[in-house]
Write the structure tokens for this entry.
Amino acid sequence: MTQFQRASWLAVLIVTLVAFGLVVPRLPAWGDETVALVADTEVAMATASVVIPAGWDLDIAASSQRRPVASRGAVEVSTTDAVWLGDTAALLANVSRLLFDGEAVIPDVASQADAPAGDASSRDVWQLTPAAAASPHAPVRVDVIREGQGVVLVTARGPASDVTAASDAIDAISDSVQLDLSTLDLEVRG
Amino acid sequence: MRELTRARFALGWWAPRRAGWWVLIAASAVGAVWVWQGLVPGWRDFPQVGPTALVLTVPLVVAWWWLLRIPQLWARIASSGAIAAIAWGALVAAGVYALPSNAALITVIGQRTSIDFAQAWGPALIAPLTEETGKAMGIGVVLLAVGQRLRTPMDAALLGAFAGLGFTLTEDVLYAFNIAYVNLGENQFVSTALIYLLRAVVFGSVSHVAFSAFVGAGLGFLLVGRSRGRVRLGVALIALGPVLHGLWNSPWLAPLWLRVVYLVAVPLIVWWVLHVVRRSEYVWFRAVLSTPGALGATPPAYLDAVRPTWWQRRAYRASVARAYGRAAIASQRAVEAELSDLADAIDVGDGAAAAALRTRLEARLVPGV
């Protein structure tokens, strides 16, 4: 290897390392972090879609990766789609573990008929709220929407009073969720 | 082939005089931290996924290691060089080039165009750029760290393939956590096994190993190709990796039948590239041994006894066995290996090894010596 080849490789290595490791990750900071919606806007997830109402700010980074996050004032609502094969009681317990570290008030689903897995015709919506011992960083409410094996979590964070004040809008966001498990994409996108 | 005694790109674990070694060590350390930071939330939420993924990584490495030995007909890549390339792919290409940049650039697309466009085309446009660049740099860093030059395009293709293997190992773990998030960790062992089955078996041909081997072969043709049209071929192969990568990620391949066509086509492309690269190795072999050096040129009859491809060698050995009995096969394999080693020794200027190999060959091939 000649000195020129060594120097060339070294220069390319260092330039690309700096570019991809340090410069490129800062590029989004030069643009808008959110887009203010002037009309109700449908945003896709992998297996569902949600309509974010006009007047909310949509997070571009999260939404571009199919995890819509919207905010208005101090209230932030994120939507996440998922798949659950088991019963709803276990689903809610698991959501409680993941989002509330287990400190959530879970609705009593045992007394109600659980939709059989795969029955996408029925839609159930359950709401989890933080228990008294929950972390102050825990969500204020999590709507768990289930249609058959498809699940969407609508998670609201922010000051409890603000979230309560925005509850109609959050309800509308939850109501707008459309699940379509046929679009589930398990492909390898390297 | 196992009879080869020489290996390329052996890397000393302590080589502080080489700038490439420092780049390899420093970037790997940074990449390891960034990969770990990317994994920590998933590791905390889904504790069974990580250990399961690591266990499944072992057979994946063994299988790919074995597969990548098959094309090493004319030269062996030293294990240390291969491990360095794998480490670069796993830690640096994934942790430094891909993880921070993919999300950032997809966000930029969302900022400059629309969120819909970013969702649909972001992975197709961005992942090939960041990931193929990162993996290709694994070739350069190994060359710098060992202080050797490329000899044939196959050298670069193999180093690229090992870097791609490293990248896919890390990405498989990340995908295992992704799928755990998708199913909220309902059955972590099954979902992890499923994603490994999909990536390693069902989509095995759509592999980072193949993509980065194409890019490596292209770089090899540009840097050390000998044939006419090497620039055109080099550029085409460098483009082939990212194009195939982007196509797989694109919404154009949404219909299932198109994905099946793709899965069938890629192995054929691998076969074609292997054929092209193999031919360049043969041209190199004959050129090196046909050139009269201090010890003289190797007689053409000996060169003709070393066939350019694995299949042709097999057929040639069968003809040797028919003529001289099955015991002659071992001798034929030894001749193939010693001539290949001789070409390598002469090409890298290792005069002592070349003289020793030549003496051994003469003892084997020239009666009365």
Summary: Chain A is about 30% helix and 30% strand. The CA atoms of residues 22 and 112 of chain A lie 53 Å apart.
